Amino acid sequence: MGRNLRGKVALITGASAGIGRATAAALARAGSRVVLGARRHDRLERVAEEIRATGGEALPVVTDVAEASQVEALIGRAVAAYGRLDLLVANAGIGYFAPVEETPLEVVERLWRVNVLGTLYAIRAALPVMRRQGEGHIIVVSSIAGKRGGPGSGVYAATKFAQVGLCEALRVELAGSGIAVSVICPVGTSTEFFEAAAALGGVRVEPMGPVQTPERVAAAIVRCARRPRPEVLVFPPARLLVILNAIAPRLVDAILFRFRRRLLGNRFPGPRC
Ligand SMILES: NC(=O)c1ccc[n+]([C@@H]2O[C@H](COP(=O)([O-])OP(=O)(O)OC[C@H]3O[C@@H](n4cnc5c(N)ncnc54)[C@H](OP(=O)(O)O)[C@@H]3O)[C@@H](O)[C@H]2O)c1
Asked: Which of 27, 48, 104, 177 gets the most CB atoms within 10 Å of its CB?
């Protein structure tokens, strides 16, 4: 049966759309009280209203995760409202698709601020609360790009690898504390992610390979909240890619070379790697 999520306090960053929104709705359906963080006030209010309309409890808090003070205020609002924090889902994230050498430095910095520092700020603000409670669960939404970099997503992959490394270290640091740490690695998911990435510039891409719904990812997150696991690959066959990459990275390079053509066209004419 696993942990009962009824009455638990769950905070989800990036809850105004996509995976975060679906996760907030799924956790609310499981009986958790949800605190919703993101920048767009109107979207957050709509998500909160949808949850309340189905009998759930939701607290929207406008937050830019790239600002440490705003993330601290978000966690503070959750604790002020509900007295505790059982689950943090650090999900807010942005992408950008272009060759590494063509990615502007301001975009590199933005991706790191949102994806890595935003995650770190949330974890650092949540930990003292969870330590006081002697229990808690931190779930970070990384990506399959955090297990293997691909053409056109080098900077994004670097931020997603950083999240995986952070979670691995934290799991060991927090062993025996009652605080669990999990990292979720979805494959392509049908959300506004690719549109938001294109709005930053770079190459307009569609998700490649298998595509899942945000509800499918949310269901995996809820399962993980019930039974904490170190790492969840939402599309299980992706484990083959991870194993193959560990033992034969050049073979995976060759497979991904085909995607380079599809994604980046002839930007890099040259011999097959
Ligand atoms: N979609 C995919 O194919 C895919 C695959 C693997 C992993 N992921 C990961 O899944 C996570 C969620 O992505 P998604 O697919 O659900 O994308 P999405 O539909 O674009 O949603 C992204 C969410 O992050 C929020 N966000 C962006 N910048 C923010 C900031 N500075 N401060 C606070 N919130 C911010 C957005 O809200 P506001 O704009 O309102 O702030 C939105 O709620 C990301 O970490 C992404 O890397 C996505």
From this structure: 27
List helix spans (H) across 16-140. Answer: 18-29, 41-53, 68-82, 105-111, 118-133
The contacts of residue 26 (CB under 8 Å, 6+ apart) are 215, 218, 219, 221, 222
Residues in the chain: 273
Name the nearest CA neighbour of 95 among 14, 22, 37, 210: 14
What's the CA gap between 244 and 234, in Å, rounded? Answer: 18
- What does the alpha-carbon distance between residue 183 and residue 228 come to, in Å, rounded to a whole number? 10
Decide: 201 and 99 in contact? Cβ < 8 Å: no
Mean confidence (pLDDT) of the chain = 95
Instruction: Give the helix/strand (H/E) hosting 261.
Output: helix 249-264
pLDDT tens for 49-99 read 999 999 999 999 999 999 999 999 999 999 999 999 999 999 999 999 999
Q: Which amino acid is at 33?
A: R
The helix (run of H) or strand (run of E) holding residue 11 is strand 9-13
The residue among 35, 36, 9, 40 whose CA lies nearest residue 192 is 40
Atom of ligand 1 nearest to the CA of 190: 1
Distance between CA atoms of residues 198 and 172, nearest Å: 37
Pocket of ligand 1 (CB under 6 A): 13-20, 38-40, 43, 63-66, 91-95, 114, 141, 143, 186, 188-189, 191-193, 196, 207, 214
Structural domains in the chain, CATH included, are 9-236 (3.40.50.720)
